[in-house]
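[09:14] KT: can someone run the structure on this one? pasting the chain below
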Amino acid sequence: MEFIPNKHGFVEIRLESIGGQGAYSVGQMLAQIGVEGSHLHAICFADYGSEKKGAPVKTFVRFAKDDVTILNYSPVNEPQIVAVFHELLFKTQPVTDGLHTDGILIVNTDQTPEQLRAMYNLNVKTIVTVDATKIALQYKTKLNTAMLGAIFSSLNFLDPTLAADAIEKMFGYKYPHLVEPNVSTFKDGMEQAQTHVFTDVEAGIAHTRKPTPFGYETQNQGGEIAGPNSYTKNLTASREGMMPEYLNEKCIHCSNCDNVCPDFCFVWEEGVDARGRAQMFLQGIDYNYCKGCLKCVEVCPTQALVSMVEERDYADAHRVQKPFDFLGGVK
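[09:31] RB: done, C-alpha cells below
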C-alpha cells in the first residue's frame, strides 16, 4: 500500500487484539518508524477497555504528511488497514467495522486468505494472513513482532530496515536478550505473510457499525443488563496459542486445578468412589471460559493436565459445558 491519505489527510490503521499480546507496542513502533524513517507525522494511542490481560484492546495509528499537524485523537472508525491479532476475535468483536472494501485486512491465523474469506464472508479486496502464533512459539516471543512483519509486508511507505532498530529501542533497555529473537520473529512474519487481492468484491460497500442496545437512549431503566450475562460469554479469544489438555485416565480428582483456576473452568460431578464414599469427580474443562493461563498444568501432581498448542476446533470438540441448569443451561 502506498501513502494514499483519506479525505481527512490521514492514513489510519486499527489494531484489534487482546490485552497482553503487545499490539500497543506494535503501534508505537509503526509510529516511530513513520516519523524517523519516512518523515511523516504520526500518533499512536489505544482503547484498553477494562485494562486487564485477555480483554479486547483497540490500538489506533494515524499517519500524515509532515506538513499536516495531527490534532485528531478520536478513535479510528474508518481505517484503511485493520490488523487482527487473534482470529477468534471475529466471533466476539466487530473487528472489521468501518473497513472499506478497498482496504487491507491482516489476520493472525493458520488459514489462507481464501479460506479466511469464505469462513467469515469477508468483503474486502486485500486479505493478508500469517500464522504469527506459530512463529512466536518457535522463537519463544510474543506474536506482536510477527504481526508487525505482516503489516510491513503490505506497506510501501515505511522502511522495513528500520524495524530492527525500533525493536531494539522497545526491548533493549530492559530485555536485551529478547532483541534478537524478536527481530527474527519480525523477519519470519514478513516473509511468511500470504497476500491475496480479490477482484470480485462489491465495490463501495463498507462494513457498518451495529447500534449498541446499551446506549443512553436504548438501555433499560437504571442501566440494567437484562438476562444472564457473564456465564454466556465466550472467552476463548483470550488464549494466546496455548491451552490445557485433560487426560482423564491420569486424574486423581485432587482439585488442585480448580483451586488455582481464575475462571472456574473445571466441571465436576458428584459420584461415589471405590470405597462407597461420596466424592466430586472431574469431568473435563469448559473451554469457553479458559484463558490459557496454564496455572492448572503447573499444579497438577499426576500430569493429567498438560499444555498443548491450540488446534483449530479442539476446544469446541472437547468442551464439557458447565451445568447452569438454573439459568437455562445444560443439566
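[09:33] KT: thanks! The first helix runs from residue 23 to 38.
[09:34] RB: yep, looked fine to me
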